[in-house]
Design a protein that fits this description.
With about 70 residues, the protein is mainly alpha-helical. Helices cover about 60% and strands about 5% of the residues.
Length: about 70
């Protein structure tokens, strides 16, 4: 897995779509963690927040698998 910047032919850097997707899922995971903390004390809100966090983790798994697996 390579999440480093790529260089264009003119030497400037560009961020790949994969990097942007990965960053988005990391931000979603932080958001989900914040919802879990904020909802402590309310059973249904905590359960929903935990499901949201688990869903984010499931969606980020492909970034750590080798292509073709």
């Amino acid at each position: 897995m390579s999440l480093g910047f790529h260089r264009k032919s003119d030497g400037s850097r560009r961020i790949s779509n994969r990097q942007i997707d990965f960053l988005g899922w990391i931000l979603f995971m932080f958001s989900a963690g914040s919802f879990v903390v904020a909802s402590i004390g309310n059973l249904w809100a905590t359960a929903g927040s935990i499901f949201f966090l688990v869903a984010c983790v499931v969606f980020i798994i492909p970034f750590f698998r080798k292509d073709g697996a």
